[in-house]
């Protein structure tokens, strides 16, 4: 049963003697981009000029989780370097250089290995901001030290249903954050949570990865236990939740992103517990991604108001439900 949806590793680096991006001058920012470009281009990377990309193109990069809102805020002096099947390089986001890699499985080790190979190409050619006591320096002091931030995205509908606040307390007590994917609303849309260390000072990169793997294993065990308990002890309520979501997604004429994600969370829980059956395989991450606000507009090729998005989303969902069930 799918619990882990995605894992990601971000490596933060800053250039010595330059202000952080929040206070950097355009000239210094350009110089950092040129430093990165001189190293990344021979490795097969291409840069994207964000200032001259369309709103839809930027939206696609954002929805694909390649660029971040912080990078878009600095669009006048930020850049991104891409190479197929390789880590992304963000320049002048919250920090001068962020190297990141994600995959739709719990495999932090491979992502870290790929990132460190790229970091090795930069090290020695760029004079990193480093302190003998604190390690690599970051704009957020909590991200200093090894400056490697691993995170895991998890689907936890059963833990959410049983409101197991003790699970969340234990996670935080171990020095980790557990956040919903919509940080602005402070909610776990679709019962999806992201778990990452509060700080990256005090342990090595491998230690942080190993500790997060152990923590995730315990969460997975608890989630699967609670799914079985839900099925065995509350089968009628479970079927009711799944059936209501099935009915809404199959018939709604207008639906917003938040409601869509909650109902698909219920549908996929129903699929994994054999409450309902599908005619073909369907992936949770890709499904909700295709119906998020950004991808709805990318598909249409233009920016839409909220009502138009919600109508188009409902139309597309009804088509999918007919195809799959």
From TrEMBL:
It comes from Peptoniphilus stercorisuis. It comes from the Bacteria. Residues 3-226 form the Phosphagen kinase C-terminal domain. The keyword Phosphoprotein does not apply. ATP binds at residues 6-10, 149-153, 179-184. PANTHER family: ARGININE KINASE 1-RELATED, ARGININE OR CREATINE KINASE. Keywords: ATP-binding, Kinase, Nucleotide-binding, Transferase. Its EC number is 2.7.14.1. It holds the Pfam family ATP-gua_Ptrans. This is Protein arginine kinase. InterPro entries: ATP-guanido_PTrfase, ATP-guanido_PTrfase_cat, Gln_synth/guanido_kin_cat_dom. The lineage of its organism: Bacteria, Bacillati, Bacillota, Tissierellia, Tissierellales. Belongs to the ATP:guanido phosphotransferase family. The keyword Electron transport does not apply. Gene3D superfamilies: Glutamine synthetase/guanido kinase, catalytic domain. GO terms for molecular function: protein arginine kinase activity.
């Amino acid at each position: 049963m799918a619990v882990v949806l995605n894992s990601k590793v971000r490596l933060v680096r800053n250039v010595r003697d330059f202000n952080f991006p929040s206070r950097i001058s355009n000239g210094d920012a350009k110089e950092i981009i040129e430093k990165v470009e001189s190293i990344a281009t021979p490795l097969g990377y291409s840069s994207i000029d964000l200032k001259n990309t369309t709103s839809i193109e930027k939206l696609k990069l954002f929805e694909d989780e390649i660029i971040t809102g912080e990078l878009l805020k600095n669009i006048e002096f930020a850049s991104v370097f891409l190479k197929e099947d390789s880590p992304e390089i963000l320049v002048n986001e919250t920090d001068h250089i962020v190297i990141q890699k994600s995959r739709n499985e719990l495999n932090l080790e491979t992502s870290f290995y790929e990132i460190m190979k790229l970091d090795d190409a930069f090290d020695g050619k760029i004079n990193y901001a480093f302190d003998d006591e604190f390690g690599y320096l970051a704009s957020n002091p909590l991200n200093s030290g090894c400056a490697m931030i691993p995170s895991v995205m998890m689907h936890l509908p059963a833990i959410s249903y049983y409101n197991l606040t003790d699970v969340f307390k234990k996670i935080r007590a171990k020095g980790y954050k557990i956040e919903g994917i919509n940080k602005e609303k402070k909610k776990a849309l679709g019962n999806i949570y992201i778990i990452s260390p509060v700080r990256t000072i005090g342990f090595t990169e491998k230690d942080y990865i190993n500790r997060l793997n152990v923590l995730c294993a315990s969460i997975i065990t608890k989630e699967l236990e609670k799914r079985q308990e839900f099925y065995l002890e509350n089968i009628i309520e479970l079927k009711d939740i799944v059936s209501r979501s099935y009915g809404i997604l199959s018939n709604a004429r207008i639906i917003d992103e938040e409601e869509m994600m909650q109902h698909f969370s219920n549908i996929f829980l129903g699929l994994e517990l054999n409450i309902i059956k599908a005619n073909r395989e369907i992936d949770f991450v890709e499904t909700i991604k295709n119906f998020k606000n950004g991808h709805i507009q990318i598909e249409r090729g233009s920016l839409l108001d909220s009502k138009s998005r919600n109508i188009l989303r409902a139309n597309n969902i009804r088509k999918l439900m007919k195809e799959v069930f």
